[in-house]
Amino acid sequence: MNQPRTNIIDPASMAVSAEDRVATYDWAALNTDLDSFGCAILPKLLTADECRAIAGLYPDETRFRSHIIMARHGFGKGEYRYFKYPLPDPLAGLRTALYPRLAVVANEWNERMGLDERFPGDHASFLQRCHDAGQTRPTPLLLQYVPGDFNCLHQDLYGDIAFPIQVAILLSEPGRDFTGGEFALTEQRPRMQSRVEVVPLRQGDAVAFAVHNRPVKGTKGNYRVNLRHGVSRVRSGMRHTVGIIFHDAR
């Protein structure tokens, strides 16, 4: 179902719609990266002004449905807040615009892994599937780290229905706003040691990555690998990230 939007950015800075900015990327190349490495970078998905405006929402409790202190749950050290509906622009627009591009990859992955589930072509239809299953709480979130904070390796699964790819956007500038805090993705292959991918991001860059499983082509066909993601220790400054998860939660 479509959700209403609330602007947080001066409309003049939103001259390029979410659909138009998503369409500018070479999706054939991005899909190849997702297939090869389990992740793909979308440079400058948000402007610096948009990044600062979204990060600036963090103290405003009226924008969020819950506040998580990671250490209380063994998730690491740091904190994050889940947005409530309506999501702020440009996040609402990007969630809608990114989904159809990634659904193509998700459906191909499920076919290769021998899974029956297929994802609809538009995000509204997928959200309706989540809501029919009792998953109605929005999952996009805003994370904040200070020196010593980190995020343990994890998977963002919030119910029986889960979209297999999500997007994280770095809102702070490495080397200026913070040091450390690298995004890392680990991949566990059968009977092999885990592979680590450290993803270099600048302010406004997004990374699309596998949430749980993805297929890898071997000598005897495709096999399934398990992925987790996390953030290394922040050494100085403050780091903000926004996460766009496409399924809703129970």
TrEMBL record:
<protein>
    <recommendedName>
        <fullName>Fe2OG dioxygenase domain-containing protein</fullName>
    </recommendedName>
</protein>
<dbReference type="InterPro" id="IPR018655">
    <property type="entry name" value="DUF2086"/>
</dbReference>
<dbReference type="Pfam" id="PF09859">
    <property type="entry name" value="Oxygenase-NA"/>
</dbReference>
